[in-house]
Write a structure and sequence with these properties.
Strand content: 15-25%
Radius of gyration: 50 Å
CATH superfamily of the largest domain: PAS domain
Oligomer: single chain
CATH class of the largest domain: Alpha Beta
Helix content: 40-55%
Distance between the termini: 75 Å
Shape: elongated
Amino acid sequence: MKTLSTKSIQSQLILFFTIAILVPVIITSIVGVTLIQDQILTHSDTKIISDLNYAREIYKNKITEIERITRFTAARSLIIKAVSENNVEFLQNDLHRILKREKLDMLTIVNTSGKVISRGSNEECVNDVLNEDKFIQAAISNKQIITGTDIVPRNVLFKESDELAEQAKMDVTPTPKARPHATKQESAGMMLKAAVPIMDENGSFLGVILGGVLVNRNFEIVDKIKEIVHQKGTYKGREIGTATIFQNDLRISTNVKNEDGSRAIGTLVSEEVFDEVIIKGQRYVGEAFVVNAWYISAYEPIRDIDNNIIGILYVGILKQPFDDTLSKAIFTFLGIALGGIILIIFVAVYQAKRISTPLRKLEEVAKKIEEGDYKQQFIVKAPREIERLSASLNQMAKQLDQEKMELEAWGEKLEKKVQQRTDEIKKIHSQLFRSEKLASLGKLAAGVAHEINNPLTGILTNASLLLDDLPNEDPRREDVDVIVKETIRCREIVKRLLDFARQTKPQKQRVDVNSIIESIILLVRNQTSFRDISVQKNLSDKIPEIMADKDQIQQVFINIIINAAEAMSKGGTLTIDTLLSSAEDFIMIKFADTGHGIRENLKEKIFDPFYTTRENGTGLGLSISYGIIEQHGGEINVDSIFGEGTTFTIELPIHSQESD
């Protein structure tokens, strides 16, 4: 014996509704969060690469500025004359003035052998040889301007000035995620240089002037990068954008801040970046830990004139704003998804109760009927199927009550009647089951209409032959005539279904639309439905004949005219206009009535198959009409104002491509 299910309809409906919405919401949430994350990361990577390109240009512009100053100095006639005459005093004064004015850290002139003639920063240190300086060597050898970045030893910086040597010296600060540094103090400095040959008016080579700016503790470049690229923006008290120039792996110029707000001079680059940029010589783009926070960073190597990597140029954007934006977007997305889930569950619970509550009441009524109380009557406002079940149950209860009284009255006398009544009760149950089953099968009627047509034709043919064979006085003739008429009626219904499902190809010929309209008006004007309707015709005599199926076009016009008459059941005016389109390639037929009109939300449904507002309508008339006009290459449109009237406009092409 099978056990009854312990799960209620309400719980199963809620469960299935929840599963049906939860699975797609979870999938959509995962995909959406992934897409949002990818978009934010892609945007951040694109921006940081762009920022790095700007930073590189600012860095190069500073070198170009040094070159310009040095080149203009080398081209001055007084400088050339002083070098050629070895006028050290003039050179010292002039170079010192230019160095201070142009804010250079080095402005030194050497002769053709690399021997120092004059230093703008230190007038006492002269006559030493700078042959180890690669810029001077290249300028002397090639007689060309040489620019770039160089690492200057501490002894060379001392010759320029004690202050310059002290500016370059810095202690190495241990930094999280950085590799151990070889020394605890750095004494050399990184300098932007320009070496320019000095040539006299005859083109003779007199020497080289070397200009430079020390990068160590010089924040001009990094602050300019921050100002131009990041516009000094802040987020929660921290600067959003930062820039740094590294001497090898050591920060020598930066606006990255320590926890105390000081510049993080002397800190080191992370080991991951060091391996990628210094060791491999590749650009690094991505997340990186910078001193004390995570940044979306971009690093690229700085090379000297021999293409050796001597430092790193860095720009970075604080990662926290991106993380907060991503978190906010994710929480917003998930919040919307969660709200949708809650709403769907609420709707599911409501709908489940709407279905299960009347079913439980029906169950109680059925149980009382089962116990022998046939006086139960149950009226419920519920979905149509449950209302039908309730009506059937009430009807069954009435019939059972009637049968019970009859059985009680005859039970003692006619024992055989008990069995007969029992069989009738079983028959009633069977009929109830069959009626419910037929209600469901009715939805399939349209799909099997063509299967009915063949046997229906056989019935009609044989019934017609039988009717012809029966004499007029034969009493069976009336019954056979009913069979023929009803069969013809069934055939017409099937034909309308088949016409919609498989519309017949138009049999086109030359037709006069005005004549068709005239004949239809003559046909319908004496009908009862047109008794209080005034028909106004505005038929243009410029309308040419067109290629069309006369019967099908007539069917369309009749459908629209009959619909108009039904819309004006209390009388009104039907106006029919025919005219040419502005391009004279279509003819237009307008049917305007003064009926009750069509509601705005129903306009899109009137051409749908099986949609009708009439009790006895099939809902196929306008659908078939739409298909006929479409097969003729035309259009049918409706314009209606509820309460004022409706206008159907049909456009038919004058020249049919198929006929041509």
